[in-house]
Structure formats: C-alpha cells, structure tokens
Design goal:
Largest sheet: 4 strands, antiparallel
Strand order of the largest sheet: 17-18-19-20
Shape: globular
Number of domains: 1
CATH class: Mainly Beta
Helix content: under 10%
CATH topology: Methylamine Dehydrogenase, Chain H
Structural class: mainly beta
Number of strands: 21
C-alpha cells in the first residue's frame, strides 16, 4: 500500500508531501550507478569492528565503564575509514577518517549519545543524544536541536546527514522525523497515525527527496519521492525482531540491514559476499552488533 498525505507547518510541524511504502509493495525505480559496493563494517557493543567483503580491517575501540558501550559508527566519504562513537561521546577515527574532537575532551559529560554522522566532505561530524541534543565538530555547522526547540523527547535512535551536507535528520523510536538546516521534512509515522516504538534507524539517499526508516522487524518505510524502496524483511517472509541499523551502499543503489546477532540482509545492489546472510564469528556471539556502515 502507498499512502499519500500532507501536513501543515504550525509551530514546529512541517509542510510536506510523502509516500509510505510497506509490506510487499513493488520496488520504486531507482538509478543504479555502475560502481559496485565494496563491503561493510559491523560494530559491536564492546567496540569491536568486523570487516566484511572488501571493507578494510582498520581497527576497533577499547570501551570501558567511563566511555560506556560503543553505540554508532559512520563511514568516511571515500569508504576507506570510519568513526566510532561511544555513549559518553568519545570519538575514535580509523583509516582515512580524521578526528576533530569529542565530548570528553571538550569537557562535556553525557552518557546518552546514540549516533554520529559526518559532513559530506568528511571534515567534521555531528553527535546526537537520545534527547535530540546536537554537538558539532570540525566543519559541521550547528543547525539546531530538539531541546533548542523546547521539545522534550527521550527516544532519538539515529541521525543522517542531509543530502547536500548542510543539515541533518533525526529519527525517534516512534518514527518521528526531525529536520534541521537544509534537510527537508517528507513525513513521519506519527503523522500517518502509525503507532510503533521499534524504529532502529534511517537513510537519506543523495539526490533524492525523501528518506527510508527501518524497524526492528526489518520493515522499511519510505517517505518522499525518488527514494528507492528495495524491499523489506517482512516482504521476504523473514521474521526477525532485532534489526539494529540500515546502511546505504556507496552508490546509493542498495542498502544493508544488520541484526544484533550479526546477520546482514542485502537489498538492491548491496552484496553480502557470497550469500544472502553473513553471520559474525562465533567468538562474538555474546557481543551484540549495534551498528553497520558501508565501505
């Protein structure tokens, strides 16, 4: 089913037209570049990074009671590095990714960071807390935050850089979407009257006017236009409840969904090496995956 809707902007709400694709809707047409995906990294709660396919082995993070668990990672624009962030805002850079600072070294003490997103040129990044508080480093511009708008939330689970790199989008576990800077609002699950509490992340393909949300069951919700709906786990008849993240391929022609157990499902031109599912080594089975990033 595809449902169109519009909302008016009133006191922080937004005017937008969007489409929601669920279940077994046929994929929307999408241009796929000739470049092929090069693999991906999985980040575990303890800070271990597992490289899959052509993704280089660049190192892991040592977490502690002070840093808290690893919570998110983001790939450098050239696909040859990544950043890892922990719950207290400690940021570690690997490969071509550069460090531009973090919260502990700025004298900021928090324990609820949930995501990191780099600027389009890789010369900076944003961190976001579960309350929607934003912290900017390097050439990342501060474009606002949920506390700055007077909004009291506690369920932000992810963020991505806006197409064009001059803003960012936040998503809550209820599927609420918040846009800042150049990011455009195309709708949200609460705006459709949909009641969920298990959204795990979002992606916003470059050059599109929209975004995709993913739930813990692997359901994909597409808003806007020009965004490829490439499938969902319910649409494949796959029953899971532990999807923790979604990541676009380097050419935006596909996406990966990762589960806490390390299983990865590929859609579009995404490739999980030689099978539809990749599983973490048995030695990591007790260390849940918390994030995925494409090389």
């Amino acid at each position: 089913m595809i449902e169109n809707f519009a909302r008016a902007r009133v006191a922080g709400h937004f005017l937008a037209t969007a489409a929601l694709a669920v279940g077994s809707v046929s994929a929307l047409s999408a241009g796929v570049a000739s470049a092929q995906p090069n693999g991906y990294w999985l980040l575990t709660r303890s800070g271990q990074v597992v490289d899959v396919g052509g993704a280089p082995d660049l190192g892991s993070v040592a977490t502690s009671a002070t840093t808290g668990p690893a919570v998110s990672m983001a790939a450098a624009p050239d696909g040859s590095g990544y950043w890892v962030v922990t719950a207290n805002g400690t940021v570690k850079a690997f490969g071509s990714a550069q460090s531009f600072g973090d919260l502990p070294h700025s004298g900021v003490h928090v324990s609820d960071i949930v995501a990191i997103a780099p600027t389009s040129d890789g010369e900076g990044y944003w961190l976001v807390g579960k309350d929607g508080g934003l912290f900017a480093f390097g050439d990342a511009n501060y474009e606002g935050s949920l506390p700055g708008l007077g909004l009291d939330v506690r369920d932000v689970v992810g963020m991505v850089t806006a197409p064009g790199g001059h803003g960012y989008l936040l998503v809550g576990a209820d599927g609420g979407v918040f846009t800042f800077g150049s990011a455009q609002f195309y709708g949200s699950l609460p705006g459709l009257g949909a009641h969920v509490s298990d959204i795990a992340g979002l992606i916003a393909p470059a050059g599109s006017q929209g975004y995709v949300l993913v739930g813990s069951d692997g359901g994909a919700f597409v808003f806007g236009s020009g965004v490829p709906y490439l499938g969902s786990l319910p649409g494949r008849g796959v029953a899971v409840s532990n999807v923790v993240g979604i990541a676009l391929t380097a050419d935006d022609g596909g996406y990966y969904m990762a589960t806490a157990s390390g299983k990865v499902f590929a859609f579009g031109d995404a490739d999980v090496v030689s099978a539809d599912v990749v599983t973490l080594p048995a030695s990591l089975s007790s260390d849940p995956v918390v994030a995925i990033a494409s090389a």
